Amino acid sequence: MMTHMRTIIDLPAPQLEALDALCAREGISRAEAIRRAVAAHLEAHRAAAPDEAWGLWRGRGLDGLVYQAQLRAEWDAPAGANALIGQSAMPGRIRRKGVRARAGRPAATPRKKRR
Fold this sequence. Notes:
The protein has four helices and three strands. It is α+β, with helices and mostly antiparallel strands.
């Protein structure tokens, strides 16, 4: 059994007149017209279920990890510079100015040779 809750709304006069005209045409009450409008609005703006998002990336010609690495490389790039010189053959890794960096981590600084 569905429970109902009463609510009070304020409508401008033009909207109330249009609502009354709609109710007269449809042969329904104001409450029913508002319930239908709320249901239609919620359906139009509902959040996507996880199973609806499954496979959205499939049609793209780019691996998701490579794309993520490209976006994160922009964070470390100087303004106006392209941080990606080339892509590594290994997914999830990128080359930045000749230095291999793991996706999402800063490139390691070169070590000094020990004497």
